[in-house]
Amino acid sequence: QVQLVESGGGLVQAGGSLRLSCAASGTIFRFNNMHWYRQAPGNQRELVAGITRLDTTNYADSVKGRFTISRDNAKNTVYLQMDNLKPEDTAVYYCHSSRLGATEYWGRGTQVTVSS
Known about the structure:
The protein has strands spanning 3-7, 10-13, 18-25, 33-39, 46-51, 57-59, 67-72, 77-82, 91-98, 105-106, 110-115. The chain has 116 residues and is an all-beta fold.
């Protein structure tokens, strides 16, 4: 069974940094496209960043230049480095896995809170 487990969230002041990790198990990780989504209270879940199995990346406009997604296939882990954090980045961050023709999977999320 596929499991995605996020870690690295917490409370940080504006301008600070956090690094989120998502460890995958039960899947051939290197074949998966991986994404980070976030959801703030009262808002819809939105795509923050994605990285394909070929290491192509994409970012939401609101985080370009501040966030970096990366993956380590040897560790079955995807990362989200978040720098220059802003209060509007406060949300629950979710890891997502997808592969063409296969089931999508979600982690349970990790809370990121940025104080002003």
